[in-house]
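Figure 2 data, in text form.
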Amino acid sequence: MNAKGLLIDLGKLLLCGLAYFVGLMLGGMVTTALRLPPPPMPAGVSQSAAAIGLLGASPMLALGLALLAPHIAGRWPARTLMLAGLLFVAYSLNTLLDASLYVTGYADTSAFMLISSLVPSLLCGAAAAWLFAPASPHRGLRGAWREFFGQRTAGQWLWRLALAAVAFAPVYILFGLMVNPFTEAYYAQNLYGLHLATWGEILPMQLARSGLFLAVCLPIIAAWQGTARSLFLRLGGAQFALVGLTMALVGTWLPWLVRLPHTVEILADSFVYAGLLVWLLARPAASPEPRRPAQTLQQAESRP
């Protein structure tokens, strides 16, 4: 990509991020009209500072969608819904569920969080689907899905989908245990509003998150117009941008000794989880056509 193309894509990312921020303000108006209580702000963080931080981080949300948008089959409305669904679950709903385990005060503000994030997710998804449209002519989504699901038997899909539905939970737990020695003290001492969760709370929540991630990733995998390798790299990068990068940029109330280990953790589990989904669900590699034995010169010459 040349410098001009890079600048154009950067401008598109900024526009998508702006669409998210505008949607966030509109969603805030809706929650204000409904008199829904917002989540408590961390100590030392004002509403205006949080809004400015999210404005600066919103291009990372757009980047997550831009990695996937040019390679998804379907017309603009269908691609909008797939991208908006991924953004809503991976960033908004995922943040709410995870924060309800470890951050004081989030569990009671779910209605505010969900309603206020619906509009920005739709606007950002629509902008990404439009600005990062596929270069080739649009392929019908129904045909792409029919071809995708027709490549395996019902029995093959059953065990693959069953494993994919729980795949996120062991990945999350594995990398969480690896990063735990670096961050556990902050949770144990209830610093910065953090607190420890029990295994009885963690396991059901991660299984629920696993099912939600599959619900929004499966339509994109089924509509993917590219190689399995590109799907792995872009889906892993998208999840990291929507979860890890945004968390590192928005969560300025947490010290880097907390944010950095979790960012590395999310980088690892994003790509490992994406790799598992691609391995389980992506289109099987096409079998090469059998090669015909080469004719000998004598056989060729014996023909009339």
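Caption note: The longest helix spans residues 3-33.
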